[in-house]
Amino acid sequence: MLASAAAMAAPAGPGGELIRRNDDSVAQQLAAQITDATHPQLGGAPDAYGLYSAYPAAGLLLAGSAALASQGSRFYRSDELRRRLLLAVKYLEGKQHADGTIDLLTTNFHSTPDLGFVVHNVAGAAWIARRHGEPGLFAALEPFLTRAGAALAAGGVHTPNHRWVVCEALAQIHELLPDPKYVARAERWLAEGIDIEEGIFSERSTVVYNPVCCNALLVTALIGAILNSVESKFEYGYAYGDNCYYIEGAPSEKEPGLERRNGKGRTRSRASARAAR
C-alpha cells in the first residue's frame, strides 16, 4: 500500500502535526485519484460536484510534493507517490487549452483567473520539487507553467480580486522561470491601484476574498513593493473580529449566502474556528 510505503513516523511537535495532517490529506486525495489506464479521466479526481477539472489535480500536486520532500512523512521519497504525481501532471496538461487557460466547469471557461488559482498550487509544487531534489517532477511541470505564464501575461479577469490572484501566479512563475513579460503584466495590474480603503478591499469580503487578496499581494511582493497596503488590511481584520474568533461579515459584497445561513450577519472563518478549539 502507498500509505504504508513510508520510511519514518512524523516527528513530535507542531511540525510533526502539520506533516501528519498533510499525509492524511494526501492519502484521501490519492484514494480519489483515477488510476485505471482505460478511464478517460486517468490521473484526475472528481471535485465536490462530481466534475473533473484541473483543481483537484493541482491540489494533489502541492500536497503530494510536500509529502514527498518531508523526511517525517510516510510518503517521503515514495516511488509510488512520485508516479501518481506524474499521472496528475499528465492529466493537468490534458485540461489546459492551447491558449494556456483552463476551465472552471461550473461557470468559467478559458478562464485566466481560474488558471491563476490553479497555478498557485502547481507553482508551489514545482518550487518544492526544484528545491528538494525532484528534478523529474519539476521538468514535468515546466511545460504547463510556461503555457500558463503566456496566458496570464495576456488574459483578463472577472472581478477585482482576480487581478491580485493573477499577479500572484505571475510572481510564482517568474521566480521559477524568469521572464520580463510576467513582471510587466503584474506591474500593469498594480498600476491600477490596490483597491483598498480603510484596510478592506473593494469586494468587502472579510472572510473569503480579503485573505485571498492579502496572500496574493504578499507573494506578488516578490516583484513589487506593496507590503504597506497589505499590512493595513491585517489591522482592519483585527478591528472586525471579536474575542470569540468571529469576523463581521455584514459589509460583504461577496458573502450574502454565508450571512443568510448564519442569520446574524456574522461569519466565522474555518481558520478562526480551528483556533478557538
Strand content: 5-15%
Number of domains: 2
Largest pleated sheet: 2 strands, antiparallel
* Outline: globular
Spans of at least 5 consecutive residues whose pLDDT stays below 50 are 1-9, 258-277
Indicate the radius of gyration in whole angstroms. Answer: 19 Å
How far from one another are the termini? Answer: 34 Å
How many helix segments?
A: 11
Widest sheet, order of strands? 1-2
How are helices and strands ordered from N to C? HHHEEHHHHEEHHEHEH
Q: Can you give the mean pLDDT?
A: 84
Description:
57% of the residues lie in helices and 5% in strands. The protein is mostly helical. The chain has 2 domains: 189 residues, no CATH class; 85 residues, no CATH class. The protein is globular, with a radius of gyration of 19 Å.
Quick overview:
The chain is mainly alpha-helical and 277 residues long. It has helices at residues 14-32, 54-69, 79-95, 112-131, 135-152, 160-176, 180-191, 209-220, 227-239, 256-262, 270-276, and strands at 102-104, 108-111, 196-197, 200-201, 247-248, 266-267. Strand 1 (102-104) and strand 2 form a beta hairpin.
List the helices and strands and how they pair.
Layout: H1 14-32, H2 54-69, H3 79-95, E1 102-104, E2 108-111, H4 112-131, H5 135-152, H6 160-176, H7 180-191, E3 196-197, E4 200-201, H8 209-220, H9 227-239, E5 247-248, H10 256-262, E6 266-267, H11 270-276
Helix pairs in contact: 1-2, 2-3, 2-4, 3-5, 4-5, 4-6, 5-6, 6-7, 6-8, 8-9
